[in-house]
Every structure is written in C-alpha cells, then in structure tokens.
C-alpha cells in the first residue's frame, strides 16, 4: 500500500524568503505524485503533479517540485514566498488498486508567513 | 466548466435528522469521490464511484449512504449522525490515469 510522509508539521518563513516543503512517499511502482494547497475552511487546490517525464515539475503560483526516485522524495519549492501563500500544504500519492485510482495524503504542513 | 460544486456550504443537523450533501461536476470525469476531513487532519477517503458504480467503500458506517444518480452528480445521504461526524466533507472528481483530482470547496457539517 502507498503512503506519504510530510516530516514538517509547521514551517514559518519570512515574506520574500525561499521555501522548501518536504515529502517522502512509499509505493511499489512509479507513483503519481501531487501537491495540493488548502486555505482555512476551503477545498484543496492542485498546485502541481508528476507522473512521468521531466523530474522537475512547474506548477501554479510560482511553485515547483522535484521528483527524486533514489530518495523517494517529491519536495515542493518556491524561490520567494508571498503572504498569500500561508496555508496548509498536502503531498499526495495516487495509485491504482483493483482498477480504482486512490489518492493518499500526507498529514500536511502548515505554512506561516511573517512580514 | 472546470469546477466541482458542492452544496450546501454549511450544514447544522441534529442527531435524528436526515439530510443530503450534493456534488456536481461537468468536466466529463468518470470517477467521483467523497472525502471526510477533520480539523488539522488530511482528507480521508470514504467512497469512490467509477462510471456511476460504487467501487470503493472504506468501511464507512451505514449512517452515510452515497448515491450517484448520473455521471455528473454525487450525493451523500446522512441519517442519525453522531457529533463526532462533524467535519468538512469534500467531493472530488478525476479523469483517471493519474491526472489528479479536482476538489470542491466542501460542506462544513456540524452535528448537534
């Protein structure tokens, strides 16, 4: 069965500083990997996804992520954060199970931005 | 239309009430999902519908009853809920093939 680990529960970053959120996955085959963002009381918005090809993936809002098979990682990065980036970030792995696609989430990382 | 629409946005219900949550998408996605999310926790899968048929039930109590009337609609019927069922209920749809899900903004449910 697939699983996702986000080791950082809470990260605080100054506005304008760079950001990296960590994600490690466990899955027996080539995974489908996703990063979602959730503002308080809202649904989840897809930031970016990887399932093949270039291991550096560009997403919305200036985010990017790099798939590293050797480290089973899919870390999210942004060169310069904005106050509006404060939110909860979920890494997720998608896998097929008996013909059904199933998305499994990590526990999330809460991002706080300070002026 | 690239959205998943959920109604209502907020719902307060008593433990003896019957209510329904609704979800609609017009993206032609073949799979639709219900997730439950407690505060400060990740979403947890409840049900998966694939081609309008229930394909996954993650051992959800029978007081939650899903229904997929057609390829665009997904309902979640609620009956005799408990206070611990209070949560954000998220609907999602997907094309499959690892292309990710589109989530609705959720229904905030409070059981009193």
Highlighted features:
heterodimer, A: six-stranded mixed beta sheet, 57% strand, B: 112 residues, mainly beta, globular
Give an overview in words.
The complex is a heterodimer of chains A (115) and B (112). Chain A has strands at 3-5, 10-14, 19-21, 24-26, 32-38, 44-50, 56-58, 64-68, 73-78, 87-97, 100-105, 109-114. With 115 residues, chain A is mainly beta. Chain A starts with a strand and ends with a strand. In chain B, strands 2, 4, 5, 6, 9, 10 and 11 form a 7-stranded mixed sheet that branches. In chain B, strands 1-3-8-7 form a 4-stranded antiparallel sheet, with no helix packed on it. In chain B, strand 5 (44-50) and strand 6 form a beta hairpin. The A-B interface holds A 32, 34, 36, 41-46, 49, 51, 90, 94, 97-108 and B 4, 6, 31, 33, 40-43, 45, 48, 50, 55-56, 88, 90, 92, 94, 96-106, 108.
Percentage of residues assigned to helices of chain A: under 10%
Shape of chain A: globular
| Count of runs of 4 or more consecutive helical residues of chain B | 0
* Strand content range of chain B: over 45%
- Poorly predicted runs of chain A: none
Question: Structural class of the helices, strands and pairings of chain B?
Answer: mainly beta
SSE layout:
The complex is a heterodimer of chains A (about 120) and B (about 110).
Chain A: E1 3-5, E2 10-14, E3 19-21, E4 24-26, E5 32-38, E6 44-50, E7 56-58, E8 64-68, E9 73-78, E10 87-97, E11 100-105, E12 109-114
Parallel strand pairs in A: 2-12
Antiparallel strand pairs in A: 1-4, 3-9, 5-6, 5-10, 7-8, 8-9, 10-11, 10-12
Chain B: E1 4-7, E2 10-13, E3 18-25, E4 31-37, E5 44-50, E6 53-57, E7 64-70, E8 73-79, E9 87-94, E10 101-103, E11 107-111
Parallel strand pairs in B: 2-11
Antiparallel strand pairs in B: 1-3, 3-8, 4-5, 4-9, 5-6, 7-8, 9-10, 9-11
């Amino acid at each position: 069965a697939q699983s996702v680990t986000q080791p950082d529960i809470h990260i605080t970053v100054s506005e304008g500083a760079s950001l990296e959120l960590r994600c490690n996955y466990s899955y027996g085959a080539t995974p489908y990997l996703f990063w979602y963002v959730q503002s308080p009381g809202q649904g989840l918005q897809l930031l970016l996804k990887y399932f093949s090809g270039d291991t550096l993936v560009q997403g919305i809002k200036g985010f990017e992520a790099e798939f590293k098979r050797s480290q089973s990682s899919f870390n999210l990065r942004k060169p310069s954060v904005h106050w509006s980036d404060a939110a909860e970030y979920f890494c997720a792995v998608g896998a097929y199970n008996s013909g059904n696609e199933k998305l499994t989430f990590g526990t999330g990382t809460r991002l706080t931005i300070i002026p | 239309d690239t959205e998943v629409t959920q109604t209502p946005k907020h719902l307060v219900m008593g433990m003896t009430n019957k209510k329904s949550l609704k979800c609609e998408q017009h993206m032609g996605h073949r799979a639709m999902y219900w997730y439950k999310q407690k505060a400060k926790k990740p979403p947890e899968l409840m049900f998966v519908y694939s081609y309008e048929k229930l394909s996954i039930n993650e051992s959800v109590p029978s007081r939650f009853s899903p229904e997929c009337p057609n390829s665009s609609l997904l309902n979640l019927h609620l009956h005799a809920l408990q206070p611990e069922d209070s949560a954000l209920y998220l609907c999602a749809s997907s094309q499959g093939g690892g292309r990710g899900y589109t989530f609705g903004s959720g229904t905030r449910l409070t059981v009193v």
